[in-house]
TrEMBL record:
Domain Amino acid permease/ SLC12A: 42-422
A Pfam family annotated for this UniProt entry: AA_permease
Domain of life: Bacteria
Organism: Zhenpiania hominis
GO biological process: one example: transmembrane transport
Protein name: APC family permease
Classification via InterPro entries: AA-permease/SLC12A_dom, APC_superfamily
Subcellular location: Membrane
Keyword Membrane applies: yes
Residues passing through the membrane, by range: 17-34, 46-70, 91-112, 124-143, 150-172, 192-212, 233-255, 275-298, 332-354, 360-379, 386-404, 410-429
Length: 442
């Protein structure tokens, strides 16, 4: 069938979508939080990842339900707009936009920092430009190239993670750490583990899963969106969760004293150094740098397609935000905007604030999607599958809400300031809320 002008290409299969979600989360994600999270959980980060994976599966199921009903670009924005209310949909999209914008920004900062440490002759800002440039070119050329690039990079990262797990296991069997591979210690620490510790650890671990929802922004480029989007979201959650749990498990066995790291920020590199020497720690550093490309590609692409969906519904200037490259059929202007935001933010913003804001937007969006399932299916469509359309999304909403209200004060100040800006934008585009935002129908 001939590709129509103004439409995104349907080329992504289930495998591509699942890898896209895992790439956004990155298989190496425990490297970013291991030291601090181990201290919070008393050395039971593996259990925290189990809790987080279960929690995120509720929301992944909700994304699957909404993707089946509305297989269009826009993800959280589109689902809330159609499932509940067009105005609330705008706010959901405006909030989740922070998440999609800041994920590549965070990995640009991290990747450039590690690359600069490895090759200090090239300054930090130059590494930011290099990483951003590669990510932007890949996304401009199209999702097929992005999917192939992600497949390759995720495979390399996955191989390094497997090597890390094997090296740690060999070290343990050789007498290091616990001295045994069968232990409940990474899941339960007597005298430390309790409900509050599990909740706190689960909250930290949940942030490694932020990004699986990016799969749904590719609905109009999926070959079978109604069938594959939901399945891919669940597969990405489970696949990512298993990878995270295994890394946390073997690292805890290999290095039981989680209080003895020289730096909490580089704890897993110290574990890799101890278990596998300079080669393993070097490979792990290389994997972190690779993760900046996979998460950067997925994050930039998702934000660009969210803007495409909002532009098509005319809540953002339509002509500009829905422009597709005549050859590659990608929203090139949106991608270039994301590149500029990523570069400027990487050079000016504080990492801690960026992380908090990402959590603010992501969890707010998750709550909206869970609520959308209940409102649309259970109340509006009168579907009486209580488990699927009430209990599961209800649990997802409550869990995400609990994590959301536990964020810092500064994240709420900046986050609500961002929502206020969105309120002004929506007031202008809807002529003082007198006109509902338009809804695109396929």
């Amino acid at each position: 069938m001939e590709e129509q002008r103004g439409e995104l290409k349907r080329v992504l299969k289930l495998k591509d979508l699942a890898i896209y979600g895992i790439a956004f989360m990155t298989p190496i994600a425990p490297a970013y939080i291991y030291g601090n999270a181990s201290a919070v959980t008393g050395g039971t980060l593996a259990m925290a990842y189990v809790v987080a994976m279960i929690a995120m599966l509720f929301t992944a199921t909700s994304y699957g339900s909404m993707a089946g009903a509305f297989p269009v670009a826009g993800s959280t924005y589109s689902y809330t707009q159609r499932g509940i209310n067009p105005h609330l949909g705008f706010f959901a999209g405006w909030a989740i936009y922070i998440d999609y914008v800041l994920v590549p920004l965070i990995v640009f900062i991290t990747g450039a920092s590690y690359a600069n440490a490895a090759v200090p002759q090239i300054p930090f800002f130059a590494w930011v430009l290099i990483i951003a440039g590669v990510v932007t070119v890949v996304n401009c050329v199209g999702v097929q190239m992005a999917a192939r690039t992600n497949l390759l990079l995720v495979a390399v990262m996955g191989a390094i993670v497997v090597m890390f797990i094997i090296v740690c296991a060999r070290a343990v069997l050789g007498g290091a750490g616990e001295g045994t591979l069968i232990s409940s210690r990474p899941f339960y620490n007597p005298g430390v583990t309790n409900i509050s510790v599990l909740v706190a650890g689960g909250a930290l671990a949940c942030f490694s899963f932020l990004g699986f929802d990016s799969i749904t922004t590719m609905a109009e480029e999926a070959v079978r969106p109604k069938k594959d989007i939901g399945r891919a979201a669940v597969i990405a959650c489970i696949g990512g969760g298993v990878i995270f749990i295994l890394q946390a498990y073997v690292a805890q066995l290999a290095w039981p004293d989680y209080t003895s790291f020289e730096s909490a920020d580089t704890s897993l590199f110290e574990v890799a150094q101890m278990a596998g020497g300079t080669l393993m720690s070097g490979l792990y550093t290389f994997a972190v740098i690779l993760s900046t490309f996979t998460a950067g590609i997925a994050g930039q692409s998702s934000a660009a397609r969210l803007m495409y969906g909002m532009g098509r519904d005319e809540v953002l200037p339509k002509k500009f935000f829905t422009y597709l490259h005549p050859k590659f059929k990608t929203p090139i202007f949106n991608i270039l905007i994301m590149c500029a935001i990523g570069v400027i933010g990487s050079l000016t913003l504080d990492m801690a604030l960026v992380t908090e804001l990402m959590n603010f937007g992501g969890l707010f969006g998750f709550m909206c999607v869970n609520l959308s399932v209940i409102v649309y299916f259970f109340f509006r469509k009168k579907e009486r599958n209580v488990l699927k359309y009430l209990i599961l999304p209800g649990c997802g909403f409550l869990i995400c809400g609990y994590l959301w209200i536990s964020l810092s004060t500064i994240s709420f100040i900046v986050g609500f300031s961002w929502l206020f800006v969105g309120l002004i934008v929506m007031a202008i585009t809807t002529k003082g809320f007198k006109v509902k935002p338009k809804i695109y129908e396929e």
